[in-house]
Amino acid sequence: MGRTNACLVLALALAGLLAGAAGCPVGAQPMAPKADEGQKVFKEACAGCHKWHGGGGGGYGGAALSLRQTQLDRAHLVEVVGCGRPGTGMPSHKRDAYADGACYGLKKADLGQDAPPEANRFLRPKEIEAVVDYVIAHVQGKGDPTLADCEAFWGAGARTCGEYRPGGAAPEAAKVGE
Asked: For this UniProt entry, which residues form the secretion signal (predicted)?
């Protein structure tokens, strides 16, 4: 393994230390995973049905299940995001999901009208992995959403988070200039 590759591996293994701190040559940058990529994908592809907090509820596809309460493991979550859920409103986010039998061993013709709808936005495999990792780390098993959860999703002081503040008020900084 070359010096640059070894440094990249070392930098990633040490939880994102900067390349210079890991002793890599100047210009060798580790390919640090984007911590917010999963959240970004969740906002764009999932929050419309599962809501920002992942608690589910009504959406364009019907009543979405709670990701906060799901017992699915990572492999099953990846499969469901990619393949959708036959017979439900959960769309498939993988392009041509049922073309070759890769989803649940079924093809679109096998499912007929029970075939999951196609999502408005298809996801690449890395995006599916990122959104599943986000759900596992920040949503699954976390109980009721809190102000901290809301602000982690929308940003500190977001008006959307008012219902989680004492008295439901917006923070003083957000009230300035109203």
From this structure: 1-21
| Half-sphere exposure at residue 9, Cβ-oriented, CA atoms within 13 angstroms | 6
Domains present along the chain, CATH in parentheses = 1-32 (no CATH), 37-145 (1.10.760.10), 150-178 (no CATH)
The confidence band for 34, taking pLDDT boundaries of 50, 70 and 90, is low
Q: Which tokens go with 122?
A: 């298809």
**Residue 103: which residues within 8 A CB-CB, separation 6 or more?**
79, 82, 83, 84, 92, 94, 97
Q: How far apart are CA 88 and CA 115, in angstroms?
A: 8
Give the global pTM.
0.74
Alpha helices in 14-93 (DSSP H): 37-45, 47-50, 74-83
Q: Are 112 and 119 in contact (CB under 8 A)?
A: no
- Rounded-to-integer distance, Cα 167 and Cα 145, Å: 16
CA distance 111 to 92: 13
Amino acid (one-letter) located at 60 = Y
